[in-house]
Automatic annotation (TrEMBL):
This is 3-hydroxybutyrate dehydrogenase. Coiled coil: none annotated. It holds the Pfam family adh_short. GO terms for biological process: monocarboxylic acid metabolic process. CDD domains: HBDH_SDR_c. InterPro entries: 3-OHbutyrate_DH (IPR011294), NAD(P)-bd_dom_sf (IPR036291), Sc_DH/Rdtase_CS (IPR020904), SDR (IPR050259), SDR_fam (IPR002347). Belongs to the short-chain dehydrogenases/reductases (SDR) family. One of its GO terms (molecular function) is 3-hydroxybutyrate dehydrogenase activity. It comes from Comamonas terrigena.
Length: 260
């Protein structure tokens, strides 16, 4: 379905981004990965996912908190694969503290990585998408783009912000073949959430299993994690022809979290 297209997925050396990159490769898209840490393992996993289509993969290690890095990454994608047809803004970090105690540098980093980076990638990807009259921008927001939780001021502000950016980008391109939508997961057991489970277990002196059970029980009625594979399939749907007129939605996959 996506053969000949190129996808760039930010923050895709781990977790949800890697799951989405694999799902897009399975549909035949070439993929530019981004993110910190080992790139060889993720590159091999995405190459393997797209083996039937002979997809090409590359990695750029741009720091999503730096506009100049993002510009270099977008230029790299264009020179390596010709154009970015599918942009997935996924890179994100978390920090947990009350507003009055929230470290200013953590606030700035979360807003830069979780929100401002998507503005930069979007503004840089749009001209070629508009010229081709086809493009898909998928913003990995969160259920925290729709509702709040205590201790997560920067994250919730950034995620509400990216839902807003999604709507405006969708509206500005509404008469074209370029769509923009957001995905809003509930809990997904990635390193980002494992840190929160570990912190809960340590703070309460409880086991990892009990901390996981409590974490899900507090917010997620299904008592189940959403998986990167399921989120990957939602991204594939947004890229399909069936989603040509899906514009500006914030689609939660959250086990009923936001339905409460
Ligand atoms: P993760 O920690 O597994 O992966 C984060 C990725 O972002 C990694 O590849 C990391 O290297 C990269 N990254 C971090 N800082 C970066 C930077 N400055 N520049 C470039 N890359 C950077 O996290 P995840 O859980 O897969 O989260 C991915 C996205 O999904 C985030 O935007 C997160 O907010 C969102 N999300 C996660 C959950 C969840 O429960 N895990 C729920 C809702 C939304």
């Amino acid at each position: 379905m996506l053969k000949g297209k190129t996808a760039l997925v930010t923050g895709s050396t781990s977790g949800i981004g890697l799951g989405i990159a694999q799902a897009l490769a399975r549909q035949g898209a070439n993929v530019v990965l981004n993110g910190f840490g080992d790139a060889e393992g993720p590159l091999a996993a995405v190459r393997e996912a797209g083996k039937a289509h002979g997809v090409r993969v590359a990695h750029h290690g741009a720091d999503m908190s730096k506009a100049a890095d993002i510009e270099a990454m977008m230029a790299f994608a264009a020179t390596t694969f010709g154009r970015v047809d599918i942009l997935v803004n996924n890179a994100g970090i978390q920090h947990v503290a009350a507003v009055q105690d929230f470290p200013v540098d953590k606030w700035d980093a979360i807003i830069a990585i979780n929100l401002t980076s998507a503005f930069h990638t979007t503004r840089l990807a749009l001209p070629a998408m508009q010229q081709a009259n086809w493009g898909r921008i998928i913003n990995v927001a969160s259920v925290h783009g729709l509702v709040g939780s205590a201790q997560k001021s920067a994250y919730v502000a950034a995620k509400h912000g990216i839902v807003g950016l999604t709507k405006v980008t969708a509206l500005e391109n509404a008469t074209s073949g370029v769509t923009c939508n957001a995905i809003c997961p509930g809990w997904v057991l990635t390193p980002l959430v494992q840190k929160q489970v570990d912190a809960k277990a340590a703070a309460q002196g409880i086991s990892n299993e009990e901390a996981t059970r409590q974490l899900l029980g507090e917010k997620e009625p299904s008592l189940q994690f959403t998986t990167p594979e399921e989120l990957g399939e939602l991204a594939v749907f947004f890229c399909s022809a069936a989603a040509n007129n899906v514009r500006g939605v914030a689609w939660n996959m959250d086990g009923g979290w936001a339905a409460q």
